[in-house]
Specification:
This protein is 63% helix and 0% strand. By secondary structure, it is mainly alpha-helical. It is elongated and about 115 Å long.
Length: 158
């Protein structure tokens, strides 16, 4: 499949069809965004330092800080949104893989339910349980099915 043969070709179509390819692509995008995030953090720090050092004649000591706060808040929001975006990319990769596993498990579950329905429609005849030993007959194997009290054991075990 290439762009010469199909006018509707999209390179991300192949990526979307495979959970491994989707995870690799989202990891690459996340890596790029994390690099951008490092640069934005540095920019926020440098901007903060510059704006807080910028004083106008007649300012009190806190006026520069008050003027810098809206800019700092805007850059902080950008960084927060970027972090949310990278977290969302990671979550999307996990959800994509979980979707494929759910599809496979759904098919298996439906087969099992169909087999169970077939079993209910055509039940197998139950085999009769073996007859319990007679009360008077003493069994040689005194395991779990043996006497229930010490008075039932008889003289041979004493």
């Amino acid at each position: 499949m290439n762009s010469n043969n199909d006018p509707n070709y999209s390179p991300l179509r192949d990526v979307a069809q495979s959970p491994e390819a989707t995870a690799r692509y989202l990891a690459d995008v996340q890596r790029v965004l994390l690099d951008i995030g490092k640069n934005l953090e540095t920019l926020a720090i440098e901007t903060r330092l510059h704006l807080r050092k910028t004083h106008v004649e007649g300012d009190r000591w806190y006026h520069a800080r008050l003027r810098a706060m809206p800019v700092e808040k805007a850059l902080g929001n950008v960084l927060k949104n970027l972090n949310n975006l990278t977290d969302g990319l990671e979550k999307s990769a996990y959800k994509r893989r979980a979707h494929d596993e759910a599809v496979v498990n759904t098919a298996k579950g439906r087969k099992e339910k169909e087999l169970e329905r077939q079993r209910k429609k055509n039940p197998q005849p139950l085999q009769a349980a073996p007859n319990p030993p007679q009360q008077g007959a003493q069994s040689q194997n005194l395991g779990y099915g043996g006497p229930t009290s010490i008075y039932d054991m008889g003289r041979e075990s004493a």
